[in-house]
Amino acid sequence: MNALNETAPRQPAIIRRPELLATIGLSRPTVYRMMKAGTFPQQVRLGAAAVGWLRVEVEQWIAERARARPNSMPELGLESERAAA
């Protein structure tokens, strides 16, 4: 690896809709309804007819959902807010 690659900032990974839906297990209308309500990350326009989502924002959303459930997974650092109190 050359020095230029090691010092360059990493570009955010973008996932497209099919991967997003497979990852989160929700339908397309549900995702857009949640985006409108402000409870899901907003899409990023990639072109005239292409959108995607920042992988890091989707992963954060998943982690927040996991932490919100009772007895979530402390071994993964996903303790629920109620259990931590």
Describe the protein.
A three-stranded antiparallel beta sheet has the order 1-3-2. It has one domain (11-84). The termini are far apart. It is 48% helix and 14% strand. The longest helix is centred in the C-terminal third of the chain and has 14 residues, at 55-68. With 85 residues, it is α+β, with helices and mostly antiparallel strands.
Give the SSE layout.
Layout: H1 3-7, E1 14-16, H2 17-24, H3 28-37, E2 44-47, E3 50-54, H4 55-68, H5 81-84
Antiparallel strand pairs: 1-3, 2-3
Low-confidence stretches: none
- Sheet with the most strands? 3 strands, antiparallel
Given the helix and strand composition, which structural class is it? alpha+beta
User: How helical, in percent, are the residues?
Assistant: 40-55%
N-to-C span: 45 Å
Rg is 16 Å
Shape: globular
Q: How many separate helices? A: 5
Total strands: the figure is: 3
Give the tally of structural domains.
Answer: 1
Q: Strand content of the residues, in percent?
A: 5-15%
Largest beta sheet: what is the strand line-up? Answer: 1-3-2
* SSE series: HEHHEEHH
